[in-house]
Design brief:
The chain is an alpha/beta fold. The protein contains ten helices and seven strands.
Length: 288
């Protein structure tokens, strides 16, 4: 396969997540949600942890997940959303991830919550899963497809393993369909290169790819207003976090990967505040 981003491979993405685990654990998730995604803040949201579960609810509501359905969590992280889908929607959920370390942790949490009969975790690449055709009722991708070196390939694989009438639900990042200045392009590239993300598609490009893969009834909603408080939180964290990361790196207490993570998050937050990209919630159907 020809990679669309020179340094992006499944191995590099897995290594990135393995080496930035401590920072993610300290700054983002907790034992209840185990989430590594943005929050969804409506008028009733009280705190960060609640916002993370709200994002799960927003996606599940769009996908209309029914008890007993088979769901694939593509890029499952530590398994937080996989477990939530099993507990809240009574679904049978398979979580896949490139990182063997994250899969091991996810299995630990599933045992801890006694959900082994409802969830499974496997170390797989969502571009080439190896699952049989028509395996799942729903494919769920939460801020994971941004790391795909070839998003059309993901969509083709998702279409193949979805059952007829199945749904694909994605929450991820998209560029606006416009020309950017040199300084804005540089800011975006700082984000992409440090967080192992290829150049993102516009919503129009992504919808065209989905249609080309066979999906129909495709909607892609800009939900940035609901996630803005998450980026305000990131901005507050970086006031001290960014200079501290530079100091720790100079003292060799921080790895290059950990420092890159901080730089990438800073660029991503700045680009969001400048309105260079948006968070989209996409729903697509495989015809019956």
């Amino acid at each position: 396969m020809t990679h669309l981003f020179p340094s992006l491979t499944s191995q590099s993405v897995a290594k990135f997540y393995d080496q930035t685990w401590v920072g993610a654990r300290m700054n983002w998730l907790n034992e209840k949600n185990l989430a590594l995604h943005l929050g969804y803040w409506d008028e009733n949201t009280q705190n960060h942890s609640e916002s993370l579960l709200n994002m799960n609810r927003a996606m599940a509501s769009q996908a209309i997940i029914c008890p007993g359905e088979r769901v694939l969590d593509a890029g499952c992280g530590f398994g937080g959303t996989t477990l939530w889908l099993a507990e809240t929607c009574s679904a049978h959920v398979t979580g896949i991830n490139l990182s063997g370390d994250q899969i091991r942790r996810a299995k630990h949490y599933s045992r801890k919550r006694r959900l082994e009969n409802q969830v499974t975790f496997e170390q797989k690449n969502y571009l080439k899963t190896g699952f049989p055709n028509n395996s799942f009722d729903v494919i769920w991708a939460q801020e994971s497809i941004c790391h795909a070196e070839n998003q059309p390939m993901f969509l083709q694989e998702a279409y193949r393993i979805l059952k007829p009438g199945g749904r694909l639900i994605i929450e991820d990042c998209y560029l606006f369909n416009r020309t950017y200045s040199d300084s804005d392009e540089k800011l975006l590239q700082t984000w992409f290169s440090n967080l192992f993300t290829p150049k993102l598609p516009t919503s129009e490009q992504f919808i065209n790819w989905a249609e080309g893969s066979g999906f129909r009834q495709i909607t892609l909603e800009n939900i940035s207003s609901y996630v803005a408080p998450s980026y305000e939180r990131i901005e507050r964290m970086l006031v001290l976090g960014y200079p501290l990361a530079a100091i720790l790196r100079a003292l060799r207490l921080y790895s290059d990967m950990q420092y890159r993570y901080t730089c990438g998050m800073r660029a991503q937050q700045k680009a969001f505040q400048k309105g260079l990209w948006f968070v989209g919630l996409c729903l697509a159907h495989k015809p019956s």
